Amino acid sequence: MSRKRPVKLFLVLPLLATLMAGCASSPAGPSVQYLLPGAAQSALRGALPDIRLDTAGYLDQSGVVMQTGPVEVRAARQHQWAEPLPRQLARSLAARLARNGVNAPGRLEVLVTRFQGTAEGEAVIEGQWRFLGDQGARAGEHFLERRPLPRDGYPALVEQLDEGWNAVADGIANGLTGPSR
C-alpha cells in the first residue's frame, strides 16, 4: 500500500499568493491613447489672444471620463488621453480661432467644466469663457454642447468631443469678432 506524502501548505501558499497577485495586477489589455483631431492643427495666423485654459479637477487626469449616473463619473483605465487634455483643448482652440480669422489681442480665459461621455450615448462639453482685450473690450458667455454618438465606443466619443469642441471654438470666435465687440 502506498502512502501519499502530505503537501506542506507553508510551501504552497506563498507560491499560490504570488500567482494570484500576478493575475490581479496584470492589465485587462493594452491601453489605447487618444488625441483630439483638432489639436493636430497649428495656429500661425493672426494676433490671437493669450489663451488660458483650465479644466475642472476631475478632468485633469489621463483617463477619458464617462458620466455613468446623475452624480457619478469614472475615468477609463484603458482609454486615455495621449497628452494632458488642457493642452489639447488650448491648441485646438488656438487653431480654430486662427482659422476663423480672429485678430483679438488680449487674454482669453476658458474654463471647461464638462468634457465627457454619458451613459445615454452623448458627448457633453460645458464651461464658460471670458475675454479681456488690450483695448478694454470684454466679452464672454457660458457654453454647452451635446452631441449624440453615432456608434458605441471610445473612438466615436473622442470624435464627437472634438466636433463639439470645434463648435464651442467657433462660438468663441464669433463672440470675439461679432458686432458686440
From TrEMBL:
<protein>
    <recommendedName>
        <fullName>ABC-type transport auxiliary lipoprotein component domain-containing protein</fullName>
    </recommendedName>
</protein>
<feature type="domain" description="ABC-type transport auxiliary lipoprotein component">
    <location>
        <begin position="56"/>
        <end position="173"/>
    </location>
</feature>
<feature type="signal peptide">
    <location>
        <begin position="1"/>
        <end position="28"/>
    </location>
</feature>
<dbReference type="InterPro" id="IPR005586">
    <property type="entry name" value="ABC_trans_aux"/>
</dbReference>
<keyword id="KW-0732">Signal</keyword>
<dbReference type="Pfam" id="PF03886">
    <property type="entry name" value="ABC_trans_aux"/>
</dbReference>
